[in-house]
UniProtKB/TrEMBL annotation:
Keyword tags: Membrane, Transmembrane, Transmembrane helix
The protein's name: DUF5050 domain-containing protein
PANTHER family: PROTEIN TOLB (PTHR36842:SF1), PROTEIN TOLB HOMOLOG (PTHR36842)
UniProt lineage: Bacteria, Candidatus Gottesmaniibacteriota
Membrane-crossing residue ranges in chain numbering: 35-55
Length: 436
């Protein structure tokens, strides 16, 4: 046997098959493109987030600085401050949105507290002896000193929201150059939460009546002596400026502010009318702050007193044909009607709205009985007492019903948007909070 086998003919089982070289650079390229796309998307998201955060932060700072600047400019238009801290813009709150459970019934009020204004649970008292204005919470009985008037006189105390307003003459500025002993009454606004007092920057004048609804302050003032004519103004706390004035040469003795509407008695249409304030003819004027428009819805040549407004309704006391009666007008159709004519004294009459109900007080003095002449004979007069149906009456606008709510001869009332604080002083009884 020939063992010399040619090498080319032998198959070796120990030889590995040929290996195909792998190109690693080509294999990695197919993953690079997706990775780049993912990275690009991530970068875009990050950049977008950074820009959004920067934009949001910048807007927040801008709003903050804007509010600060606005509030600073508002405060600068006021007069002297008792505290130099800049106060934020007044918070105008809708009382209807504030639900506070206020218990009704008799209230234990110190005799030193003479109630003058009420808003929810906040009662403003004025001590006649000490000349101190205080704020009392009728739920918690907490008290807060507001102002010491001293030897000055104070008028027109009102409270609404977080603010108390009044007019006093403690600075003793002269109201009229012609009369040296008549002092100007300045208007003050006090925030009982921040305890900051502000004086409105107004020229000297005689201001004795104020009304306040939480945002707007209305008042009448007299800048000239020896006349019954006066002007009427409305001041907006949110913008710190006068937004309306009626400076016609006329008397505007009675006015009322409610629901962004001001109503007042005005005798401008009767320039030749003579007599005292209670003997002249007046029309009732209306200024609507929401549309900035003045009108005269009640036109009739008669004496008119104590106009009040709620929504589309105006009420007032009218002396037509020498008889006083309470009228109600619906502004939707300008139709009026008599709701009470049982004998009233308009000078001492309290009347106002609580929602869709109208309340009024008929008073009779405990000591002095009103009399009427019923005949004359031999130079002497025969008279008999006048009997009034004294007490608190409530008229429902929706159904036209009138009812006597409380009986009493001399009932004095401090009204609120929802409740009435009343007291009968004939004889003197405790204060009572009632819901109409």
């Amino acid at each position: 046997m020939d063992n010399n086998i040619p090498s080319s003919s032998v198959v070796s089982t120990n030889i590995s098959p040929p290996i195909t070289p792998v190109n690693y650079s080509n294999k990695g390229r197919k993953y690079i493109k997706p990775l780049l796309i993912i990275c690009l998307i991530a970068v875009i998201i990050i950049i977008t987030g950074v820009f959004y955060l920067e934009w949001s932060s910048q807007n927040s700072l801008t709003a903050s600085f804007s509010n600060t600047n606005n509030n600073s400019s508002q405060m600068s238009s006021f007069g002297s401050l008792t505290n130099p801290v800049v106060e934020l813009k007044p918070t105008i709150r809708d009382p209807a949105q504030e639900k506070i459970n206020i218990p009704t019934g008799q209230l234990n009020i110190d005799e030193k507290c003479h109630p003058v204004a009420l808003s929810k649970s906040k009662l403003v008292c004025f001590s006649v002896q000490q000349k101190i204005l205080t704020l009392k919470d009728i739920i918690t009985n907490e008290e807060q000193s507001v102002e010491t008037i001293g030897d000055a006189e104070i008028y027109g105390i009102n409270i609404s929201g977080d603010y108390i307003v009044w007019a006093d003459n403690h600075e003793k500025n002269i109201a009229f150059k012609e009369i040296k002993d008549v002092f100007s009454y300045d208007i003050y606004v006090y925030n009982y939460k921040s305890k900051i007092k502000k004086k409105l920057s107004l020229p000297p004048a005689l201001r004795l009546k104020l009304d306040f609804d939480g945002q707007y302050i209305a008042w009448t003032e007299r800048t000239k002596p020896y006349t019954l004519n006066n002007e009427i103004y409305i001041y907006d706390l949110s913008s710190d400026q006068i937004v309306y004035s009626s400076t016609s040469a006329s008397n505007k003795s009675y006015f009322s502010l409610n629901d962004k509407k001001l109503v007042w008695t005005d005798n401008r249409d009767y320039p030749d009318n003579q007599g005292g304030i209670f003997d002249r003819n007046y029309n009732i004027y209306l200024y609507d702050l929401s549309v900035r428009q003045e009108s005269s819805p009640v036109k009739y040549p008669s004496s008119k007193f104590v106009p009040k407004i709620f929504g589309n309704y105006i009420t007032w006391v009218d002396r037509r044909n020498n008889k006083d009666a309470i009228y109600l007008m619906d502004l939707k159709n300008n139709q009026d009607k008599v709701i009470y004519d049982g004998g009233i004294t308009p000078v001492d009459l309290d009347i106002n709205f609580v929602g869709d109900k109208l309340w009024f007080i008929i008073r009779e003095s405990c000591d002095v009985k009103p009399m009427k002449i019923v005949g004359a004979s031999g130079g002497s007069f025969q008279a008999e007492p006048i009997t009034y149906s004294d007490g608190l009456f409530v008229y429902n606008i929706n159904n036209g019903k009138l009812e006597k709510k409380v009986d009493g001869k001399e009932i004095f009332v401090i009204p609120d948007k929802e409740n009435l604080l009343l007291r009968d002083v004939c004889p003197t009884k405790p204060y009572e909070l009632i819901k109409i």
